[in-house]
């Protein structure tokens, strides 16, 4: 009898101990309640690590459910999973399809692939196929698929041709560093879809990795922000509905976080210089803004929005662009994710003349984000 229980795919429980990631093994002959309580929570879990290096995770169950819904997984369907992780999602796909040999999961990391196979065997899903290769390439040998689920942050959509016409794709799509859960349906030579929530997955490895391009843990950028950046009280006043204040209630903070996330996404869509800023500085671990880096240009500069402050450096023209973007967002009634539709075209140069349509060119096609 097969089991779709999360603990069958979590043989280790990881926890932080004085800043160090430690693990405790599950004894399947005698399961401890305190360990099961740590597994059956609606959060992502680290399921495999080496030292402090996280190798793979198990997605938040709520997000898994959204993706299963969006991929329209049905009995008898052929399903491609990009990124195997613990194998838990593959097991659920096999259970729903009732034909586990129709589930093909592709994983670039051999340790993760082997780990997933062990878990699938433990849970009695021996016929699920786990392929050890660059998952970004999909698996054309068994295409086309009724459903494709991507379980890692993806800046590209290189497997359009592996999806059946009227097939479904669920993907955490990365757009200039910001990750949104997108559900697509293929309609002949394009895909149409919508976004639901902001998410954060481990990103593609291999040929489609975006780490160098978007994960800005670059010492020089951090040095500019921390050494030369100016705190902008004037901008805090102009963008007061986005910046948290010390005396804000938790409800107000939550509302500002929501608005900030939606504005950051609008910045991502409308500016090629949009930048995801990440650092190891307490209080400034994450931010989003603009970074103009034209060589020998008097317009070089940056502006970064953090939770409770705004920092700028260099030319005020970058700040002016940022404020102009904010005003446009407000003019469009502060759109949120559900206010956009998304279209994907694998080929062709698309000419866009509508200011409410944002074109993001990708290596394997073009996405259009349309404000409705």
Mean pLDDT: 91
- Report on the biggest sheet: 10 strands, mixed
- Number of helix segments? 9
User: What's the CATH architecture of the largest domain?
Assistant: 3-Layer(aba) Sandwich
Give the low-pLDDT segments: none
The CATH class designation of the largest domain is Alpha Beta
Question: What is the share of helical residues?
Answer: 25-40%
CATH superfamily of the largest domain: Vaccinia Virus protein VP39
Distance between the termini: 48 Å
- The ordered string of helix (H) and strand (E) elements is EEHEEHEHEHEEEEEHHEHHEEEEHEEE
Number of domains: 2
Structural class: alpha+beta
Q: Tally of extended strands?
A: 19
Can you put this structure into words, describing what you see?
The chain folds into 2 domains: 61-211, Vaccinia Virus protein VP39 (Rossmann fold, 3-Layer(aba) Sandwich); 216-331, no CATH class. It starts with 11 loop residues before the first strand and ends with a strand. It has a 10-stranded mixed beta sheet with strand order 7-6-5-8-9-10-11-17-19-18. The chain has a 5-stranded antiparallel beta sheet with strand order 12-16-15-14-13, with helices on both faces. It is 26% helix and 32% strand. It has 9 helices and 19 strands. The longest helix is centred in the C-terminal third of the chain and has 21 residues, at 250-270. The protein has helices at 33-39, 61-70, 88-97, 110-122, 211-214, 219-228, 233-238, 250-270, 316-331, and strands at 12-17, 20-25, 45-50, 53-58, 79-82, 103-107, 129-132, 145-150, 163-175, 178-187, 190-198, 230-231, 274-278, 286-292, 301-305, 310-314, 340-345, 357-362, 365-371. α8 (250-270) packs across α9 (316-331). With 372 residues, the chain is an alpha+beta fold. The mean pLDDT is 91.
């Amino acid at each position: 009898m097969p089991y779709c229980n999360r603990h069958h795919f979590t043989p280790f429980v990881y926890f932080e101990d004085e800043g160090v990631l430690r693990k405790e093994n599950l004894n399947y002959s005698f399961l401890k309640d305190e360990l099961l309580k740590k597994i059956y929570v609606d959060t992502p879990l680290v399921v495999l690590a080496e030292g402090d290096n996280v190798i793979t995770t198990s997605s938040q169950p709520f997000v898994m459910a959204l993706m299963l819904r969006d991929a329209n997984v049905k009995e008898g369907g052929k399903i491609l999973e990009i990124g195997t992780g613990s194998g838990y999602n593959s097991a659920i796909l096999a259970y729903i399809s009732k034909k586990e040999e129709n589930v093909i999961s592709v994983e670039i990391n051999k340790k993760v692939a082997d780990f997933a196979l062990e878990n699938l065997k433990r849970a009695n899903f021996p016929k699920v196929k786990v392929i050890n290769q660059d998952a970004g390439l999909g698996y054309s040998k068994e295409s086309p698929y009724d459903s494709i689920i991507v379980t890692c942050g993806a800046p590209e959509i290189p497997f359009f041709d592996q999806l059946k016409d009227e097939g479904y794709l669920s993907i955490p799509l990365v757009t200039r560093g910001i990750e949104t859960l997108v559900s697509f349906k293929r309609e002949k030579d394009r895909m149409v879809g919508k976004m639901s929530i902001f998410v954060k997955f481990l990103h593609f490895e291999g040929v489609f990795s975006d780490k160098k391009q978007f994960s800005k843990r670059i010492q020089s950028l951090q040095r500019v922000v921390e050494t030369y950046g100016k705190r902008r009280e004037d901008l805090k006043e102009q963008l007061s509905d986005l910046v948290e204040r010390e005396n804000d209630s938790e409800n107000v903070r939550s509302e500002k976080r929501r608005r900030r996330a939606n504005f950051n996404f609008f910045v991502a869509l409308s500016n090629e210089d949009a930048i995801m800023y990440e650092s190891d500085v307490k209080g400034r671990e994450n931010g989003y803004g603009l970074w103009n880096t034209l060589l020998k240009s008097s317009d070089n500069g940056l502006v970064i929005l953090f939770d409770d402050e705004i920092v700028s450096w260099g030319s005020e023209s970058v700040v002016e662009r940022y404020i102009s973007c904010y005003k446009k967002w407000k003019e469009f009634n502060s759109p949120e994710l559900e206010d956009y539709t998304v279209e994907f075209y694998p080929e062709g140069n698309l000419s866009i003349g509508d200011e409410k349509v944002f074109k993001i060119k990708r290596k394997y096609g073009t996405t259009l984000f349309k404000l409705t």
